[in-house]
Amino acid sequence: xxxxxxxxxxxxxxxxxxxxxxxxxxxxxxxxxxxxxxxxxxxxxxxxxxxxxxxxxxxxxxxxxxxxxxxxxxxxxxxxxxxxxxxxxxxxxxxxxxxxxxxxxxxxxxxxxxxxxxxxxxxxxxxxxxxxxxxxxxxxxxxxxxxxxxxxxxxxxxxxxxxxxxxxxxxxxxxxxxxxxxxxxxxxxxxxxxxxxxxxxxxxxxxxxxxxxxxxxxxxxxxxxxxxxxxxxxxxxxxxxxxxxxxxxxxxxxxxxx
Length: 258
Fold this sequence. Notes:
The protein is an alpha/beta fold. The protein has 9 helices and 11 strands. The protein has one domain (2-257): NAD(P)-binding Rossmann-like Domain (Rossmann fold), CATH 3.40.50. The protein is 37% helix and 17% strand. α3 runs parallel beside α4 (111-123).
């Protein structure tokens, strides 16, 4: 089976590629970055560059491409890009597209999440038979948050009350491999991490390894999305599919310091 993985160099995309190949399938990477191998297509769903080549002869697609860091590109990448990808996939005879989304996004007023909701709506138009897997926040995203919040000398300023249910990208990827190599099923059950944690506890564990001399300080933020994060809108405690905790992830990533 030939599976195209958009965003194939991202936190979950690269693990999907590994998982597909380990299971004996072909995995083709679509990325904005250049690659060396013949199973790599440099392209961009926001512009359509490389998409025709990327979908050629593909049996299925794991659509993990997104642009969370550039607000002006949310619509072009996540919404219009998804529609463009699906239209080309239909022309190429692709039989199944799996979209990677986020738990709880309809209950949080965060601009990026609005784009993800709109992309889910495009998937449901059934241009190609589809499945959607929503996951909670990745361990890698927790690190991005914490690194950004600890830029000040000697201080890490963190919204203590934010709640997350972090999950390991390798475990989400394993589920995506199962889904994309099976029949389309529409909306799948949420995929959550093993623990509900506040950001204070995650920051404490992270600082112990990465910046043990920094002082941890609460940073309340006066935004609606901040209150919604604190209220647990991004959680699915009834779905604890992942088994790797944040501390286990850190021990794997930084073995020399644990």
